[in-house]
Design a protein that fits this description.
23% of the residues lie in helices and 23% in strands. The protein is of the alpha/beta class. The chain has a seven-stranded mixed β-sheet with strand order 1-7-9-10-14-12-13. A three-stranded mixed β-sheet has the order 2-3-8, with helices on one face. Strands 4-6-5 form a three-stranded antiparallel β-sheet.
Length: 281
């Protein structure tokens, strides 16, 4: 709120001003997309708290894992943070509750708010151009000089939600065939309909942050294609009429049987494939 547009605002009772600031807070952050980038796979030395720790041979205490902390953070726009000191004090609890960090941008010559990837609730987005790297990076990483001749275990990444462009499986219905070799912890795949090119998602500045995109909560309610462990098959949940003549429906119908054997091998109990749109926040 610009005080020049409402010059009497400072004269309002303090309680009313604070209530107005609270009502103007952004919507809660809900499962935003973070963008895969090469370089997140790397070694970690196991500690005594790890189940695979070997107290008798330290050479066995190395694992290869996906370091979520290496993903580029998101820039979160919170206009109230820049209004005045009173507004900033009002927004600080919201910033804390949403695990935001405050950084200084030399390019913008101001503070910016960023949020790091939370594997418990956030979604990793992999573009068509990056799909090959996403698959082969953990394998290639094991043969780089710093890991040569090391006895490595490998854990599934901590994140469970993956997003890809729907065009990926439209062009190659077998694209998910080897996904669960390294990424066997994934139990939800979002198919982004009308996904944009890689460069569209990013803001080019020296602080290296990304725009905030989230799955659309309103609008079209696409059905979910779910792996049913009990019936050993994929079943639809929701209204399939939404697809109309969209060829994505038939592609998913064909993809399901191809994945069944892979899911059995990985002993997965759940997998949901959900078409969706994304919106910028």
């Amino acid at each position: 709120m610009a005080l020049t547009l409402f010059p009497l605002f400072p004269l309002l009772p303090t309680e009313l001003r604070l209530q107005i600031w609270r009502e103007a807070l952004p919507q809660p952050i809900s499962q935003p997309l973070y963008f895969y980038e090469k370089g997140c796979w790397g070694p970690r030395h196991l500690t005594e708290t790890d189940p695979d720790y070997d107290p008798n041979n330290d050479e066995h205490n190395w694992c290869l894992e996906f370091h979520c902390s290496r993903l580029t953070p998101l820039k979160i726009d919170v206009p109230l943070f820049y209004v005045n000191q009173e507004a900033r004090r009002s927004v600080l609890p919201w910033i804390h509750d949403h695990d935001l960090a405050i950084r200084f941008s030399r390019e913008m010559q101001s503070l910016v708010l960023v949020r790091s990837f939370d594997p418990e609730r956030d979604t990793l987005y992999v573009s068509e151009d990056q799909w090959h790297d996403f698959h082969v990076e953990p394998f290639d990483r094991m043969f780089e000089p710093d890991l040569e001749n090391k006895n490595l275990s490998c854990f599934a990444p901590a994140f469970r939600r993956l997003a890809v462009p729907s065009a990926l499986i439209m062009k190659d219905p077998r694209a998910f065939g080897e996904l669960f070799h390294w990424y066997y912890g994934i139990d939800e795949i979002l198919l982004i309909v009308e996904a944009r090119p890689d460069g569209f998602w990013h803001e080019g500045n020296e602080i290296k942050v990304q725009q905030r995109w989230e799955p659309e909560s309103g609008g079209i309610q696409w059905p979910t294609f779910c792996w049913n462990h009990a019936s050993d098959s994929f079943l639809w949940e929701g209204n399939r009429d939404v697809f109309g003549n969209d060829p994505l429906y038939k592609v998913l119908q064909d993809v399901g049987p191809q994945l069944v054997e892979k899911l059995r091998e990985s002993r997965m109990q759940r997998l949901a494939i959900q078409p969706t749109l994304v919106v910028k926040k």
